[in-house]
Amino acid sequence: MAAETKTSPASRYYSFDKSSQQIQTTNKTNSFQTLEPDVGQHLLDLIQSIFQVVVASKDIDQSAELNKMISSLETFQGMRQVLNDIRDISCEMSCNLLAAGSGNVEKTRTAVLERLRSYSWSAKVVIAIAAFASSIGELSMLVKHRDDEPMAKFLVNILKGYSPKLDLNALAEAKLIEGMLKVVRTNLDFSNRLKQESMKEAMLELYLNATKNIFDIVLQISTVLSRREDVHVELESLSKQLTEINIQLQDNMKYFGAERISPNWYEEVSEISTSELIAKIKKYIEVRDSEKLRNKHVLFLISDLNISIEEIKVLERLYEKNEGKYEIVWLPIVGSLAYDEKAAARFWELRQMTKWIGVEPSRIEEEVIQYIKREWHFIKEAIAVSVNEVGEITCLNALPMLWTWGNRAFPFTDKITLWNELDERNGWTWRLDLLFDQLILPGDSGIDIQSWTKSEGTLVCLFGGGDISWNQEFIQKVKYAARSAGVTLKLVYLGVGKKKGKGLTRNQLGRDVLVIQSESQWQFWSRLESILYAKIRLGKKDEVMQEALKVVGYGGNGEEWAMFSMGEGAMVTTSGKTALTIMEDYQMWRSDMIG
C-alpha cells in the first residue's frame, strides 16, 4: 500500500462531536483565567453535594452545608466573579431545560462560550458542570416542595408540559452524574500533570481535545433533557462518551507517568504511519494469507476476546457474501500478561468459526497495541478500521455501517449519501422492510417480508421481552383479535435486547410463533441501535429516529414491546402494557357488538 501523509495524532482523537470548530474560533486569546487545584476541588465537592440532593429519594435539607461551601469558595481571590458566571450560565441552561423540546445546543454553546471566553478549558468544564448542577438543583427543589409550598406547586403546575417530564432520575439511571464527576476529576488531574514540562508538549493537544468534548457533552445533556419523549437512550449514549473520554485520559496518564516510558514515547508511537503499521501487522501473518491483502481493501477487526459469538457469526456471513470486495484481518487485543491458557482456548474457539485472517494475540507487539488504542481509539467495544487499497483510512469504525447497510456500505466512506438513499427508498417512514433490510436470516426461518408487505390481509406482529407470562397472554389475545378481524397473523419474536441475555424459545411461545436465531436477533438489535445513533448524529429527528428510540429503549430496559404492521403502510410501536390494553379493549368492544 502506498504511504500516506502523516497527521497530528490529536487531529483524529476524541472525535465525538465535530462542532469543535466553533469552539476553537470562539476562543482565540492565549491569556486564560485558571482555577487553582484546591479551588477546582472545592467546586467539585459543591457540585457533588448538589447532585446528591437531586437524586435523593426524599427531600434532604442541605442548605446550611451548601451555603457553608459557597462561603468557603468566596474567600478565594476572583471566586465571586466565578460564582456570578455560574449563576448566569445556570439561568441559560434552565431556559434550555424548559424549552419543551426546542432546546438549542448551538445557541446555548455560543452564549456559554462567550461568557467563559477568558477562562482556561479546564475551568470552562468545571464551571459548566457547576452551572448545570445548579439549574438541575433548582428544578429538583421545585418538584420536591410542590406538596408543602404553594408557590412551588404553582410553578410546577405552570411548567407541566414544558419541563423534561421532571424526570431527573434519568440522569442517575444513565450514570451521567457519576460520569460527569469522574471525567472532570480525571481532567483536573491531567491538567496538573501538564505542569511537568517534559510531558507538556506531548500531552497538551490530547488534553485540550478531550476537555472541549467534555464541555460540549455537558451542554448537550440539558438540550436532551428538554425533550418530551423518552430520553434514556440518548442520555446513555452521552454517558458512554464521557466514560470513553475518562478511560482514554486515564490510559494516557498511566503511560505518560510510567517510568519505563520516556517523555518522547508518545511521539515515537504516533510517528508510525498507517502503511508502516500495516507492514508490521503483515509480519504476524503467514505468507499465503499476507498475499491475500495485496492491493485489497482491508477491514482490521479490533476486539478483545469477549466479543460475542453472535457478532462473529453475523460478520462472518457478511464476509462470505462480500464478493471479494474486502478482506478482514482480526487483531484481538489482550496484552501479554492476560494471554493465558484460558484466553488462548477462547481465541482458537472463535478463530475456528471464521474464514478471515486472524492474528494470535501473543504475536501483537505492545507498540502496535498502543497505536491502535491511541490512533484508532479502541477501548473495549469491537471496531473495524477500513483501509483502502492505497493505505488510506476511509472509516475508523465500519461496523455500524455494516450492521445498517450490509455490504452495500462498501467502501465505507459516505454515510450521508447512504442515509439519503435509504430514506428516499422507504419514504422516511417506519416500515417493516426498513427493519428487516439486510437482516441475515436462514432459509428455513419462515419469514418472508416481501410477500407479507404485499398482502393487505396479513397482520404482522413483531414483539419481544423476557416475561413469559406477558408473552403468552399477549400471543393468546392477539390471535383472538386477528381471528375476529378475519386477517392472517404472522407472529415474530425478536428477543430481549442485545445486552439482556437469552430470550424465550419457540417451545415456550408456541409452534406458530417464528423465533429467529440468536445471531439474527443480535443483528436486529445492533442494526436498530446503529440506525438510531446515526440519526441522532446526523440531526435527523424524523419518524424513524423517534420509533427506533422507543424500541431500543424497551429492549435496553428489558421491557416488553410490540409492533404492528399491515401491508406497506407505517408500523405502530407500543409498550407491552399498551399492547395488552389494546387487545383487551378489542375483546370488550367485540363482545359488546355481538351481545
Automatic annotation (TrEMBL):
Residues 429-592 form the Sieve element occlusion C-terminal domain. It comes from the Eukaryota. One of its GO terms (biological process) is phloem development. Residues 35-253 form the Sieve element occlusion N-terminal domain. InterPro entries: SEO_C, SEO_N, SEOA. This is Sieve element occlusion N-terminal domain-containing protein.
